[in-house]
Amino acid sequence: MDWRTKGLLQKVLGVMPGGDAIHYQLQRRFGGLRDFDREFDIKIDDWRLMANQLREVGVPMAGARLFEIGSGWYPTFPLCCFLAGARRVVTVDLNRHLRRDLLRACARGLERHVALIAEVAGVPEAEVHQRQQQLAAALERSADLAAATAGVVDYRAPADAARTDLPPDHIDCVFSNSVLEHVAPEAIGGIFGEAKRILRPGGIMFHSVNCGDHYAYVDSRITQLNYLQYPDAQWRRWNNAFLYQNRLRADAFVEFAEAAGFAIVTRVTSPPARRLRELTELKIAPQFASIPAERLCITSIDFIARKPAV
């Protein structure tokens, strides 16, 4: 599909009555939710990478108190954390996207990954398997998510990650996966400020950010740098409620974290070599022209930031 067509269609659906339901059905039939198992397995691997990095910086899953920004259509990360023995997982979304059919599919699909979750978390496989079976059975009986996880997973939507009612110094880790690139730049500082408030001293944030043009996933004729060609006034034609992209570069998210008072522990970025070659074929919009090419061409970043211990 031509990326412009998708952008305009989503823009219309974003403002029309019932547009959310129509958009969901289109995603199930033609979009990213069409091949659920493939997308789900990718999310499981993303969780594995996060859990391994958290363990390396002293935050094991078992017994952890976690806060997720951006639950999405189905809560893969919170349920993986639950199976791994997390003490509590609060997950919030600005809009309520959770779908019961995908939630059940997620719970069932986790059976394929019990061994992986147990290995990553360092807990007995039988224990993880028992939790997964009980979870899937409870959700098939139409139990709500909190009841199905014995109160561990707390899904809140609509909810603002910049204004929670959680007590201060309460959470071990705040995390997100492919979410911050969809947040308005002016909101990120508030989200990080709230994260610092609710984290315990020495607690951490983990964020994985995909800061390339997401339309490249549906239109093979463009690259992940495509959207850098357009000034804001022109980009607004295609930016929309269902696929809002802030176009911030990877370093900007780290700078927001530092401005909020966090110390950066680790940062892993995508290699820019391929993107540097692609950049030569584009005429970059004036607002990006002053950014060094190496920064423009980094289209993903994972970083860990720590709240001061005192």
Describe this structure in words.
The chain is α/β, with parallel strands linked by helices and about 300 residues long. It has one domain (about 5-305): Vaccinia Virus protein VP39 (Rossmann fold), CATH 3.40.50. Helices cover about 40% and strands about 15% of the residues. It has helices at about 5-15, 20-30, 35-55, 75-85, 100-110, 115-120, 125-140, 145-150, 185-200, 230-235, 250-260, 275-280, 295, and strands spanning about 65-70, 90, 155, 170-175, 200-210, 265-270, 300-305. β1 (about 65-70), α4 and β2 form a beta-alpha-beta unit. The protein is globular.
What is the strand arrangement across the widest sheet? 3-2-1-4-5-7-6
CATH architecture heading: 3-Layer(aba) Sandwich
CA distance, first residue to last residue = 52 Å
* Model regions low in confidence, pLDDT < 50 over at least 5 residues: none
Q: How many individual β-strands?
A: 7
According to CATH, the fold-level topology is Rossmann fold
Percent of residues in β-strands: 15-25%
How helical, in percent, are the residues? 40-55%
What's the SSE pattern? HHHEHEHHHHEEHEHHEHHE
Looking at the chains present, what oligomeric state does this protein adopt? Answer: single chain
Number of helices: 13
What shape does the CA trace take? Answer: globular
Biggest beta-sheet profile: 7 strands, mixed
Report the mean per-residue pLDDT as an integer.
Answer: 95
| CATH class call | Alpha Beta
What is the CATH superfamily label? Vaccinia Virus protein VP39
Gyration radius from CA atoms, angstroms: 20 Å
Q: Give the count of structural domains.
A: 1
Structural class estimated from helices and strands: alpha/beta
